[in-house]
Amino acid sequence: MARCIFHIDLDAFFASVEQVHNPELKGKPVVVGGDPNRRGVVSSASYEARPFGIHAGMPLSQARRFCPQATFLQVNLNRYRQASAKFMEILTAFSPTVEPLGLDEAYLDATECHQLYGSPEQMASAIKKRVNKELNLTASVGISTCKVIAKIASDLCKPNGVLEIAPGKERDFLSPLPVSKLPGVGKKTEQTLTEMGITTIGELASYPEEGIRKTFGITGITLHRYANGIDDRVVELPSEPKSINRQITFAHDTLDQRFLESNLHQLCSESTAKLRSQSKLAGCIAIKLRYADFETITRQVSLTEASNATQVIFTTALQLLNKTLREKQKPIRLIGIKVSTQTGKEKQLSLFDTQAEKQGCLENAIVRIRKKYGPKSIKTGKHISI
């Protein structure tokens, strides 16, 4: 039996949720991302805003020039997460095998259950009707024998469409499409492929695999297989996140050392609070810096002992920051941190409490005090230590 894989994608998710929340915005151009008078980018644009040329990733100031009559809204992640949770709950009612991709899209394996609805297309229609009835949102659904084609199909039938690619028709479907439609082909890869004389997915599929491998390495082999409609990846149930990411974009580019340290400490505090709430430890710390010219770099290091203590994580991150600042003096627009290689609390016990363990106990005590007496009941300086 051929596999039946769905890719379901909510249309203009953030903007659509805002239109549901405020019906007065229905039918009007809506841009989610923040205040266009401040630095930031578009997170989502309603379909009414898109004819003006507005798209995700565009600077908010440019979006305002393109469509000054649009309503600009701040990102409300709590609202979107609530809608996403309901969306995923609906999908699991149709199949037990659902793989979320972010908040607004997911793969669904319908191989064993689409017959209950008559056909894959009828099952997709049933999903869309329930999403619309319960969330007042629209979804686009791509259907194929593999993930990559289902994803492309859902993109092509937006908004509010269903597109099924029958088994055996995968290459016919892919062949005339621009190579940029293939997942994994970004602007640089597309440019290199164009220089090789490859502009369509069909041309990529016909190109000798060895030539693609020499140019792009192992990634090229994957792209070549996708171009030929070959994708053996299964729909996987969600696994526990392997990392926690926090970042902040500044209103103005800066090289102010104290300002950067203060923001880095706040990001570390948020990350370690999340770690402790999950009873997790971090073994690898990474910082991300984005400069005024949008150059982005990351630096990382492994801890000798896994920890969830703010001061331990901050001290390590600060060392990375200071080293990077010594190497390159360029104004910074964004700073971020990632804590990863999380493990459970179980570990080899030491005879005496380590400094990290003492620090963790101190921070847990501070959290308990704030919960009982309020967030302003106790404050810490930049460094808190035993």
What is the spatial order of strands in the main beta sheet?
A: 5-6-1-7-8
Strand element count: 12
Mean pLDDT: 89
Radius of gyration: 24 Å
Helix content: 25-40%
Element-level helix/strand string: EHEEHEHEEHEHEHHHHHEHEEHEH
Query: Which CATH first-tier class of one domain would you pick?
Result: Alpha Beta
Instruction: Give the amount of beta strand, in percent.
Output: 15-25%
- The coarse silhouette is globular
Distance between the termini: 63 Å
CATH homology superfamily name of one domain = DNA polymerase, Y-family, little finger domain
- Summarize the main sheet: 5 strands, mixed
**Would you tell me which CATH topology of one domain applies?**
Dna Ligase, domain 1
Q: What's the total helix number? A: 13
SSE-based structural type = alpha+beta
| Low confidence ranges | 345-352
CATH architecture of one domain: 2-Layer Sandwich
Model description:
There is one protein chain. By secondary structure, this protein is α+β, with helices and mostly antiparallel strands. The strands form three sheets. A five-stranded mixed β-sheet has the order 5-6-1-7-8. The protein has a four-stranded antiparallel β-sheet with strand order 9-12-10-11. It is 40% helix and 19% strand. The chain is globular, with a radius of gyration of 24 Å. The N and C termini lie far apart (63 Å). Among the domains are: 13-77, MutS, DNA mismatch repair protein, domain I; 171-227, Orthogonal Bundle (DNA polymerase, domain 1), CATH 1.10.150.20; 243-373, DNA polymerase, Y-family, little finger domain (Dna Ligase, domain 1), CATH 3.30.1490.100. β5 (98-101) and β6 form a beta hairpin. α9 crosses α10. Mean pLDDT is 89; it is low at 345-352.
